[in-house]
Amino acid sequence: MGLHDFGLASDLEVMQRRALERRRLLRWVLAGAATLPMISCGGSGGSATASTGATATPATSTLAAGTCAVIPEETGGPYPADGTNTNGGSIINVLNQSGVVRSDIRSSFNGATGVAAGVPLTIRLQLVNANASCASLAGYAIYLWHCDRDGLYSLYSSGVTAQNYLRGVQETDSTGSLSFATIFPGCYAGRMPHVHFEVYPSLAKAAAASNRIKTSQFTFPLATLNEAYTASGYASSVRNLSQISYATDNVFSDGISLQMAGVSGNPSDGYVVTLMVGING
């Protein structure tokens, strides 16, 4: 990974009311292709870091031509590490730390040395403008974070407060796309497995949480979760997942169609997940 020695700013410069639009399923399949496919309006690119398996989760819906739905606004949760809360009396903020701009988020950075273990996962997102027929949004930035396979959040959870892994920032390319190499998140008690992200209008503005223009989360198909958690190290996730559902989850209970990622892969080779993220650009 390339380090940015003076932090994000020098590299260039809770819960809100959810959108009223009913959610339609945005899913598509990658089978290890070098670029994301075109979906009605706008495509995306990026290389995979986890190989895919023989069977991929089929897409069940695509965008209608010339339309795009805004992904719901969701809570950033208690572990954002974006400078908006504290832990142990100290403000937790990785957005201004050296090395946070990176595509591989499995290891800690800026002096921390821990590495998150787990099933390899490549996350591919494409940011599009819901006000302009899904036009790609280039030059925006996304800060993404999630728990490790034990359901722990770096910088907050007991045992990993000295680590900052599974957090990173990327800038969207000319097709509005970006990619993160990470591990499949675990399931902790009370929540369906999920990934958090914040959208910023530029990489320079991603240095401060006050500049974020969208906060949301996405999740994974139940079949994928059950399959992924057969891998070593995910025993607690199997138990926790059996006690929760999308319908009882406090974020996804009102619908998941715009937040359900498309998936390909398997626990042995790793997974690739893809999601089109619509915002009012």
General description of the model:
The protein has helices spanning 8-11, 222-228, 235-241, and strands at residues 35-36, 44-45, 82-87, 90-93, 120-129, 135-136, 141-145, 167-171, 177-183, 195-200, 214-218, 262-266, 270-279. By secondary structure, the protein is mostly beta strands. Strands 5, 6, 9, 12 and 13 form a 5-stranded mixed beta sheet that branches. The longest helix has 7 residues, at 222-228. It starts with 7 loop residues before the first helix and ends with a strand.
Average pLDDT for all residues: 82
What is the CA-based Rg, rounded? 17 Å
Which spans have pLDDT < 50 for at least 5 consecutive residues? 1-67
Overall outline: globular
Helix content: under 10%
In N-to-C order, the SSE pattern is: HEEEEEEEEEEEHHEE
- Beta content comes to 15-25%
**Tally of contiguous helical segments:** 3
Main β sheet profile: 5 strands, mixed
Amino-to-carboxy terminus distance: 29 Å
- Topology, number of strands: 13
Structural class: mainly beta
